[in-house]
C-alpha cells in the first residue's frame, strides 16, 4: 500500500517544568545559569561566568560523538547526550531600536539593542542557531557576538524564543539539528530517547491503535528525516530536521481508500491527544502495509 502524507502533531502547551524553568530564567543568574546572589568580587568569585578561560574551540565530547555518528559507530542520541555538559555559543547581533535625524537629512543610530538570531526552517518553524566554536560562528556571521552558554541553557533560550529546533553549526562542514523533543529534554536536563527507539512511546501508540479493529499491529522506525547530509555530500544517519518517526501500520485486507483515510485520521486524532506522544514525537510519516496471514 502507498504511504500517506507526513503528519505533525498540533502545537502543545509547554510542560509545566519547562514553563517553570523559563519563569525563573535570567535576572537572578548569569548566562551560564549561576546565581548572582552571594557573589563577591574577590578571588574565584570574581569570575563573571564559567567560561572565563574558554579558548573558543568545540567541546571534545561533542566532536567525538559527531565523529562516531559520521563513522557509523554512534547515533544521534549520543550526540544529544554529549550536549548535556557542552558549552556552545549563541549569536547576538545589534538591532536598531531608535533612529535619530542627522545632518543633511541623513539618519543615524541613536539606540541599538542586542538580539538573539533566529532562523526559519524549511517547514516554516523557528530555529535557534548555536555554534560549537567561535570560528564556526564568525564564519557564519562575522558581525555576531558569541555568547557562551551551556547547551542546556541554549535549549531553554530556544523555548523562550518560540523555537522548536536548535541548529548546531549552520553553514559548516556538518550541521546537526536538535529536534523539539530533544530540545525540551536538554532544557530539562533529562536524557533523550529518539521516538523511533522509545519502547514506552511504542506501547502507548500500540494501545491507541488496538481500538481500531483493522489494525493488526504497528511498528516504529526511523523516519526519512532522521538522516542529514554533510557539506561533502556524505549522508549521515542523524541530525536531520524530520520527519523523524515512521509509523508502519499493518492492516487487514478489505479496506477501500475511504476506509483507510478514515482509519488514519482517527489514529492521528487519538495519538495527538496523548501527552506522551505530544512531548516525544516531533513529526511522523505513516506507511501502510498488509498484515501477513
Question: What is the strand and helix layout of this fold?
Answer:
Layout: H1 16-23, H2 60-71, H3 76-82, E1 87-101, E2 107-116, E3 119-120, E4 126-130, H4 134-140, E5 145-150, H5 151-160, E6 165-168, E7 176-178, H6 180-188, H7 199-209, E8 215-222, E9 228-229, E10 235-236, E11 245-251, H8 257-272, H9 275-280, E12 284-290
Parallel strand pairs: 4-6, 11-12
Antiparallel strand pairs: 1-2, 1-5, 3-4, 6-7, 8-11, 9-10
Characterization of the model:
With 293 residues, the chain is an alpha+beta fold. It folds into two domains: 16-38 and 45-188, Uncharacterised protein PF11572, DUF3234 (Trna Endonuclease, Chain: A, domain 1, 3-Layer(aba) Sandwich); 195-290, Cation efflux protein, cytoplasmic domain (Alpha-Beta Plaits, 2-Layer Sandwich), CATH 3.30.70. Helix content is 29%, strand content 24%. Strands 3-4-6-7 form a four-stranded mixed sheet. Strands 2-1-5 form a three-stranded antiparallel sheet. It has a three-stranded mixed sheet with strand order 8-11-12, with helices on one face. A hairpin with a 5-residue loop joins strand 9 and strand 10 (235-236). Helix 2 runs antiparallel to helix 3 and helix 5 (151-160) packs across helix 6 (180-188). The longest helix has 16 residues, at 257-272.
